[in-house]
Amino acid sequence: MKELFRRKPIRASFIETEEGQPSLKRHLNSFHLITIGIGAIIGAGIFVITGQAAALYAGPSIVLSFIIAAIICTLAGLCYAELAAMIPVAGGSYSYSYVAFGELPAWIVGWSVIAQYIISASTVAVGWSGYFVSLIGDFGVRFSKAFVQAPISHGVETGWHLTGSLLNIPAMVLVLFLGILISIGMRAATYFNNVMVVIKLLTVLLFVLFGIPYIQSENWLPFIPENTGVFGEFGWSGVLRAAGLLFFAYLGFDTVSTLAQDTVNPQRDIPRGILGSLFFCTIAYIITSLVLVGVVHYSQLDVPDPMAVALQAMGQKFFWFKFIVKIAIVAGLTTVSMVQMLGQTRMFMAISKDGLLPRQFGKIHPVTKTPLFASGVTTFIMMLLAGTMSIDVLAQLVSMTTLFIFSIVCLGVWVLRHTHPEFHRSFKVPLVPWVPGIGIVVCVAQMGMLPLTTWIQLIVWLALGIAIYFLYGMKNSQLRKQKH
């Protein structure tokens, strides 16, 4: 049992690659990391979820829901920032857990992150396919359903079933393109991400500027609609329920922590990247939602395209802008998927360096300075999932694994403050143990609100991971070999 929970010495975590072997090229700074964080966070959420949360739960007080969700994410973000500054290596929460809790817990966290990144990125690719087909359709181009939908689906009443389609080709092409992009090099991926982020932020800015003159203040009243008598339907309980929904509109900032070995000064820049991206996205979310519920009454926003409803209310002269919004959504989903793929390749690298996965996953190509094998495996798995599975099937594990990982990271800050109080921290979480403690409580409470089937899926996934550890990882662990 002691072997299973043997912790990696904290200084050993800084050994990134074997002597004489190629390493990742460091050229990311705070600005790059903030834009990567924004690219990971802003997807379809700001264009879709905002309207549904306002119409069904919070009304105009959706602004308060965004602030509450941002506070929840900031609790986790602060903990990520301290640990990333303390242990600035690829692997993020996996690497932190190895130092704080030991090998088996670190493997469990790493295995959970693998599910989070690959399944989340595949889910986003499937969503991207739907918006891309819709956008192309607006220009008269039609695709056969056999090649734009998943052949496998799952429903509560129907169970597993075949849809009659063959493959989701657009989703597979997107994944292949992004896989090639991240294999070429971090610089190419960063430039592409920056272009996509500019498109998204310009769209949000234009919507706000166009919408401000059409705001009707009576649409903001009552700011917190009276509760209907059902918990979560307006009133303060509705604000909280909407915050729970909007929490997932912020996910992705944690991926920044996995890029420590691509960063020039990770102790300084990783915390800035995490907290900076959260700050800018929060401002964008609040202003956009305030304009949205000001232009249109919140009761009209329970639609897949709430911005289109607002644009229609503003007049036919803004009809053209709906195409820009679709382009921005496509751009947003593209960068979300790409950043998740980047995080996954770095996770493979970190785990393989410790011997818990085959060494090929950690090898850096001497020319591209990227982990080509890890990128290839990530791309292949994602193409398979995105091409064959529906969103409902893919999304079931993402929320549960994310909350589980966040709670472990918060606990890690608390533990390492006791076990390694002497180690230098260029960034420190304030008010320990209260901040990480509240973060743990909030994440566990959110997990408790998820259905039993999601818990079963998590348990099955973790059981599979534990089996792999005992069959392969435990025998090949570098830490165990050094001990013996």
Summarize the helices and strands and which ones pair or pack.
Elements (H helix, E strand, L loop, with lengths): L29 H12 L7 H10 L3 H25 L6 H8 L2 H35 L14 E4 L3 E4 L6 H16 L1 H26 L23 H12 L19 H30 L10 H9 L6 H33 L18 H17 L2 H4 L3 H22 L14 H15 L3 H25 L1 H6 L1
Antiparallel strand pairs: 1-2
Helix pairs in contact: 1-7, 1-9, 1-11, 2-8, 3-8, 3-9, 3-14, 3-15, 4-5, 4-14, 5-6, 5-11, 5-12, 5-14, 5-16, 6-7, 6-11, 6-12, 7-9, 7-11, 11-12, 14-15
Q: Biggest β-sheet, characterized? A: 2 strands, antiparallel
Structural class: mainly alpha
The H-and-E topology, N to C, reads as HHHHHEEHHHHHHHHHHHH
- How many separate domains? 1
**Approximately how much beta-strand content do the residues carry?**
under 5%
Shape: globular
Computed Rg? 22 Å
Could you name the ranges where pLDDT drops below 50 across 5 or more consecutive residues?
Answer: none
Instruction: Count the DSSP helices.
Output: 17
| CATH architecture verdict | Up-down Bundle
In angstroms, what separates the terminal alpha carbons? 16 Å
Count of extended strands:
2
Q: Give the CATH level 1 class.
A: Mainly Alpha
Strand sequence of the main sheet, in spatial order? 1-2
Q: Roughly what percent helix?
A: 55-70%
